[in-house]
Structures are given as structure tokens and as C-alpha cells.
Design brief:
Elements: H1 3-13, H2 18-27, H3 34-41, H4 54-69, H5 85-95, H6 100-109, H7 116-122, H8 136-150
Helix pairs in contact: 1-8, 2-4, 4-5, 6-8
InterPro entries: YehS-like
Length: about 150
């Protein structure tokens, strides 16, 4: 999925203002200006649209974890240079402190059914024989379920 699309969906889901997003970046020791955030939130065909790179999205998600769960002691995790759907899914799971059953409930809100085994395959290390790549459709449905849960 496109990082800008993920950011727009999360912004809507959690009713984040642009300054809230700047603060989330700051909580992960990242820097983002309000103008940068505005350009990331624009649609692809709008003037002033800027594509959000993986390091920026990883910094945002690390900041979301810090904002939702509290900053951990010691040095902050280094944002990934390459971000996959699996990593985005995992970071959202950590930020929202979700257990497998809760994720399955969220997926069912989007009318998308997964088994517990299918779900666990997305959170395994890539070298594991049971690892499965998280496709855009699955992440999109998870984000839709989050919207339905948090934007009543």
C-alpha cells in the first residue's frame, strides 16, 4: 500500500490534526513540519503532493507506538529504510496493543474473514517457513475495520 494512503486512513481513523502528526513524529525523535504533513496528506493528483518515503512512515508508526503505549526507556528504535505491509501491520498491532482475537474482530467489521493461523503468519520473521506476505487487500481491510471501530 502507498504510505500516503496509510497516513490519510490513520489520520481519519484517529481524528488526527496535522499538528498531532507533527507531535507523533517528535515522540519518535523525528522531524516533520506542518507543511510536510500537509503535502503528504494531499491526493496523488493534487498540486503540492509529496510521496512519503518508507523511513518517514516507519518514524510515524514508531511515534504512534510511543504516543499510544508510552515511550520506552533507552534509545528509540531506528526507523526501517524499507517498510513492508507486514511491518506496518505489526507496528499498528503494537501501537494499539491488539491480541489476535481483537484483530480478527476488527477484520470482521470490514467483512473480511481470516483464520488465526493466517493472521499469525503475517507476524512471523521473513525466514520462517510459515511466514506469509501481507497483501494490500488485507492491510486495507484491517485499516477499514479500524475506521469502523474507532469512528462510530
Amino acid at each position: 500500500m502507498n504510505n500516503n494512503d496509510i497516513l490519510r486512513r490513520l489520520r481519519y481513523t484517529f481524528d488526527l490534526k496535522e499538528l498531532d502528526i507533527v507531535d507523533i513524529f517528535a515522540s519518535a525523535d523525528g522531524i516533520a513540519s506542518q507543511e510536510q504533513v500537509t503535502s503528504w496528506l494531499k491526493k496523488e493528483d493534487d498540486a503540492g503532493y509529496v510521496e512519503m518515503i518508507d523511513v518517514e512512515m516507519a518514524t510515524f508508526l514508531n511515534g504512534l507506538i510511543n504516543t499510544k503505549r508510552g515511550k520506552r526507556e533507552g534509545p528509540q528504535p531506528v526507523p526501517e529504510k524499507r517498510l513492508t505491509n507486514n511491518a506496518v501491520f505489526m507496528k499498528l498491532r503494537i501501537a494499539l496493543n491488539l491480541q489476535a482475537e481483537e484483530i480478527l474482530d476488527i477484520m470482521s467489521l470490514a467483512e473480511f474473514n481470516l483464520s488465526k493461523h493466517e493472521l499469525s503468519s503475517f507476524f512471523r520473521k521473513p525466514g520462517n517457513r510459515h511466514y506469509c506476505e501481507c497483501k494490500d487487500q488485507i492491510l486495507r481491510n484491517f485499516l477499514m475495520g479500524l475506521q469502523k471501530q474507532f469512528r462510530v
